[in-house]
Queue: 2 jobs
Job 1
Amino acid sequence: MKILFIIKDVEYIDPMGIMLLSALAKERGHTTDLAVLSEGNLEEKIRTSRPDIAAFSAKTGEHKYYIAANDVVKSIDKNIRTVIGGPHPTFFPDIIIKHPFDALCLGEGDDAWGELLDAFEKNEDPSNIPNIITRDTFTEDVRQKMRPRRRALDDLPFLDRELVYSRTRLGKFPMRSFMIGRGCPYKCTYCFNHKYNVLYKGKGPLHSRMSVERIISELKLLKDTYPTQFIKFYDDIFVFKDDEWLTEFAERFPREIGLPFHCLMRANLLTEPILVNLKKAGLSSISMSIESGNDRVRNEILKRNMSKETMIEAFALCKKYNIPTFSNTIFAIPSSTLADDIESLDLNLACHVTFGEFPLFFPYPKTELAEYAIEHKYFDGDFDKLHMSYQSTSPLTCFSKEEKLLQRNLSLLSTLCLFMPSLRNLIVKRLIKLPLTGPYFVIYFLVKAYTVKTKIYPMKFSFMDTLRGIYESFVLERFKHTEEILKNE
Ligand code: B12
């Protein structure tokens, strides 16, 4: 069969979900193709590609583009089977009741996807396949549909990067994304992981990862096939402890791959031996989230369970080893105030964070904090209204229009403040009050482009590629920071 993956757009991170699903489909002898909605030629693509199946992988916010694209597919040929999976439908399976998708995948799709393709090929009813639901078998209690978590990650095929690299600018972009494992045992209330763990309760370990051998074989092939200067490991937490796996990784990765990399860590897990091993392996920069500088908000509302001191020490350790840091901090959290957001900026300053982003809290389906926001009537539960990016305006009703302007301005200017800490008082006392969000966005963009390129993901580009990159990332960032107007609204 021919499968057409439909994605909204490409950013600078590889869409690993569809790359994996494409590889799995090819293993079964199917062919795959890609349509990118931002190119604006979906109808033509469907008519020329003539797929048997159209597949969508959806996060909350982008899901609405896929609902609209599904309508286009069905209007052209209702016999094309359409399937949707990913975090949004996993936690909002009702989407299959409201919209004409033929199947929906809950949670991991590695095995369910293959079985679904077999059923479609044989014209069989896929309803009984674990992790798959159809309109006829929709149930509120999706837990009973779940198969155990996949532990054997080494058996998964290498990502089909060609699907995306041959058709988009990612082919030439020399930073490649990779995930070595799955799962996170922490209970942060804004993140999908704690609910994923409830969905999979009793169905396998909370975290699994690939062997070093498996990682190195895939990255070797990747490096030999595509221009590659830098690896971004995108696991929520790259290492949990200083163990044999890490020793082997630190010894083999520089020898057999020899590329600088970035990974994500949790401050309370970062010890000196772990950092020394990561640096030996080629660590070039690291992400560690601060999320909130206020103890109540961080530990009671977000359930981060981490002290300020722990974070300051972890960032100081990175400074000691000369590793630039990237931090994420959430502003406009339910029950918080602007003073809390300023306290968060101050903790970033105390940590001497190299580059930071300060998105606004967005409720994601079924997460504890989204339920809290709905319960307190700060959010009406209509996820279709959400902007695709949490860097736009707070969707909560508990903040006034004036407060939202201050939050946005502080969010943009905090990135500048980390770059020039002496501006802190001017920003906090004066600049955030001015109606200059447009110019602040331009400043944010310039600081981000410079710091990310020189410190966080240092790579070499030709003059023309640098210009093109600046233009393309400006367009992407502008979209993330502005209110979107859907054509069909
Ligand atoms: C990499 C990543 C990104 C990349 C995405 C690149 C891309 N185009 O895919 C970037 C940085 C751009 C990104 C952006 C955002 N992200 Co993000 N991201 C991730 C991350 C870390 C890994 C996703 C991944 O590639 N996993 C590896 C692949 C193999 O797994 P997978 O995609 O989940 O796919 C598996 C299953 O889900 C399933 N499946 C998925 N799709 C489909 C489709 C079909 C047809 C089938 C059958 C099965 C199936 O099968 C796959 C194999 O098992 C996850 C966290 C995580 N640990 O998963 C967050 C995560 C997906 N992101 C999240 C969010 C919130 C965002 C943003 C909204 C944040 C923002 N900046 O505003 C944006 C949204 C942008 C957008 N395009 O919509 C949330 C989503 C929550 C939700 N309810 O949707 C997550 C879960 C993080 C979290 N902690 O909660 N993200």
Job 2
Amino acid sequence: MKGVFVVGAGPAGIFAARQIAQAGYEVFLFNRDIKPGGLAEYGIYPTKDKMKFGLRKQFANVLEMPNVHYFGHVQVGKAYNVTIEELEAMRPAAMVFACGAQASGKLGLPGEDAKGVYAAKDFVYHYNLLPPYAEMDFSTGKRAAIIGMGNVAIDIAHWLLEDSPYRQQLEEVVVLARRGPMEAKFDEKEIQYVDEHIARDALTAELERVKERCARCNQDVSPEKLFEEHFRRLKNPAFGSVPPRLTFRFLTSPTAILKDEHGRIARIEVAENDLVLREDGSTKAVATKERAIIEADTLVFAIGDKQDPNIGLPMGPHGYAVEPGPETTEKPHFQLWNPETDKPLAGRFVVGWARRASTGLVGIARHDGELGAAEAIEFLKNAPESNTLNEAEILAQLEKKGLRPVTKADLALLARVEQREAATRHLSAFKFADNDAMFKAIAEEREQAELAKA
Ligand SMILES: Cc1cc2nc3c(=O)[nH]c(=O)nc-3n(C[C@H](O)[C@H](O)[C@H](O)COP(=O)(O)OP(=O)(O)OC[C@H]3O[C@@H](n4cnc5c(N)ncnc54)[C@H](O)[C@@H]3O)c2cc1C
């Protein structure tokens, strides 16, 4: 049997698995989390029900394919449950790494270890109830700062302003952006979730404060233009901001985090930036010597994620090492590479955010998974028979290591319990926030099913 191991069951891994299974190969998914879905389950905003239900259904359809096998709660890596070498001993004919970008970029600032300073991914994992983040302390206070001006930053503002359990004590969320308002990266649809909180007077004053620096890059940041382009709701003269306030501070780069006597963030020292025009017409922020202090008891940094170096894959300049040379949209580089020998890691591929961190929506990760899968299938056509272990043998090997893999049958039992819980609690969906509760639910449901059969 030529079996293919896919590491990671987020959108990229699941859609790669589907394609490879459709080509007739046995596919074995190894996933860190008990449940599949990755950031589609544990990143996308909790109230985007329609999108989440749709994606869950698609993932379930893939897992229902008889030649797709699933081992959840198995983290692959030299620092984790099972190493790549141990997987290789199970004789996969090819391996596709779709493990996302799990290492949060660090700010690299003094005081970064203060309580109340959170990486965006950890924060969204927390409010999306991914164990163990779900149970960790992500408390927030009166004034929260968010670094970043993309959709993830806006999702976090949305959570803080509208849905967080700490919302009652929140007075202000301030978004800190390295560059100016014209460089905002969020989509219009996303800002609409929070724009009723924008303090118009504060935004107008902030635009006034940075207008000269932006004008040096030929940017008009007048309120009329900005409200038209980014903050349409503010065009309405009758607009009145709903508390808590949402404010922005542009041309600002944090330089240090200052703690209070309890070790929690109390203030952020920031550099004022100049905006500089590059030759290609893009802009860049350049820190000046001027400093300012921003009061904040919470800081969430949404500056993009990085590939996890603890998996054990060779690292290159932009994440895992892939085939060198220029890459085009027609020919992305999925082939993993050994930089020491300057040779391909034959039959080893990388897709999705594991290949390009923090890029785009689910549809893009899916497409990347499918293109990478096509390359893996080409390789498999000429690959020798590998006699990959079957599902029972792999399960036995994992259990011998003391692991507790979750199979497709377990996932079906868990889904039944969660659906019942949702109905009892009158919720559109329910999910357990810790692994033990999930294991208990699976065991009890299995017992019930066996009793009913007897
Ligand atoms: C806050 C946030 C909000 C978003 N909102 C939207 C949205 O509204 N709409 C939209 O279309 N897109 C949204 N996205 C983007 C979307 O979630 C991603 O494009 C997509 O999930 C990336 O897919 P992936 O499979 O490459 O990685 P991931 O989704 O990160 O999946 C990686 C998988 O690998 C597993 N894994 C990790 N490490 C290991 C390991 N060592 N061993 C085994 N398994 C491992 C994880 O358990 C996970 O299942 C959002 C992203 C974020 C961060």
